[in-house]
Amino acid sequence: MRAFRCPNCGFAVAFEEQCCSACATDVAFHKPWMSIALAPATGTSTMIDDTAWVRCAHWDRGCNWLVEADSPTGVCFADGFVRTGPDPGDTEAQSELASTLKALRRLVFQLLDQGLPITPFHEDAKGLAFDLISSKSVGHPVTMGHADGVITIDLAESLELYRERLRIILKEPYRTMLGHMRHEVGHYYEMILITGGTLIDQARSYFGDERRNYQAALADYYAGHVPDHWEHEYISHYATAHPWEDWAETFAHYLHITGTLATSADSGLILRADRVHFDLDADIDPRVHYGEGDFDALVHDWEVLSGVLNRVNHAMGKEALYPFRLNLPVVAKLGFVHHVLITAAEDNKTSASNAPDSA
Predict the structure, then answer these.
(1) Does residue 335 contact residue 186 with C-beta atoms inside 8 Å?
(2) In terms of residue numbers, what domain contains 104?
């Protein structure tokens, strides 16, 4: 995730940090600035741009976001997407909640940074909601998924041993809580940006006809019916299950890629062609944002940079950071996702500028 400048000493402060490691100043994330500000003391407020701000009510759970002092819930914008959480007395589920909320804040930050429309369920009937339920507490598996704007997440997936066991059983090269959220929110954006709209025919040309029976398709997938040489056409094994899953997996990878490129760019990481020990036509200078006409540059930058990051992981005795290949059909699908999201961000910016209170 991105790093910001400490407002007191100028040292790098990670996105979710509550305290600068260099000067010990309490800091907080301020959504309107999309950056770090000085945190008010506990029980007090601070004025920023003529508005009083306080610490999120979940500060003790690790949240470092500010919330407006007159908020009826005291919960920040990101944590406000939680519709259902574990019972307060469920200590095991509560212990799983903190790291899950951390992943949710990272997701919400990236969606805001991308300029995408994102409205919580309590502000709009078609808004986004998260139900966070632990399979360990309810005594049966929790099916993670999306339905009409509601994303269900199994809190037990925050436990490394639990998650890793499932990753091995399902033969997945990658499985993280943030990855789950990026995948599921992909379904949400397909619902609000594509389904029933002018892009549906284009989407079908890339991902297939989503009118195919979903439950039957999943039954076929889990019965082992996967296309031969699927890796030539799909970003992941699961993407073969149904066009909806192909879109969601591709969407998630788009967020993986752009999030990592943005973090690299913010950190000033540049690969110099005259320094690397392999052929490189020009420097790789990652960007925080890639516009409509920049998709080829995005793919090129990622193909080189991900190779470097994979080798860095190998140097630490770990598996590849990005254990996937971008074949041409996958690149074409990513290009469509890029177009959809860039267009949605531009439309969202126009809508915001035309709003009555935008002046």
Answers:
(1) no
(2) 78-188
